[in-house]
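PROTOCOL LOG
Step 1. Enter all chains and additional molecules of the complex.
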Amino acid sequence: MLYLVAIGIVGTLKLTDAINGPTGFILLALATGLLIPIARQRTAGCASKAMVDYNRRVLVSSFGYALGLGIAVTLWDNYELSRPVVFAISLLPTLPTFGVIWAMARYLAEEQDEYLRHRTIMAALIALGFVLALGIFWGFLEMFELVPHVWAWWVLPVWAIGLGFAQLWQKMRDA
Amino acid sequence: MKNRLKVLRAERDWSQQDLAARLEVSRQSVNAIETGRYDPSLPLAFRIADIFDMTIEEIFLREEEPRAD
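Step 2. Run joint prediction.
Step 3. Record the structure below.
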């Protein structure tokens, strides 16, 4: 929760131009540190060992993402870069997001509790349906010039939002 | 699928957490199986049966009677 508040504050400061780009990315990277307590949960709690490992991997990937994005945007804003270099810097924020996808795959492979695994798979499918439906709808709205263009990397955050809502619904149902 | 888990647990005075610990699964798993929201895999069903020293058919009940033909 504290992490989401921190992200919201950094985002607001950035949107209102209260802070510049590099400062925003540094604060974003520091805010990732707020996730450390989640990643250090022990299996004695409600999280399985696979979930603890997943949280740790996502934390490392998120930190790499914030750092990679900050470096890439700073280089892009301040230097005249050749196409191969632009290709290389676009990998800086991309590769850590592959780490998040890999962490999800490892979680499904390592989770020993079949019901928790089943629940995560169902939530992932709901999130997939959400991102496909929204993507198709947005695509046609964009084609008919009703909405602005959206970059394709939004699929992962939108999918993650769908996953979050699906897991929240599952938690409320199981309570 | 209907089952007698809740009754069997109550007879032994076990909480959902107790049964979960014996099965080495989460309490959510026991709750989901008990309430019929999730049907366990065959290996887990055998583990449940072993813990109660019963057969699977004595714990998990068919939704419909088998056809008599």
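Step 4. Note key features.
Chain B has five helices and two strands.
Chain B has one domain: 2-61.
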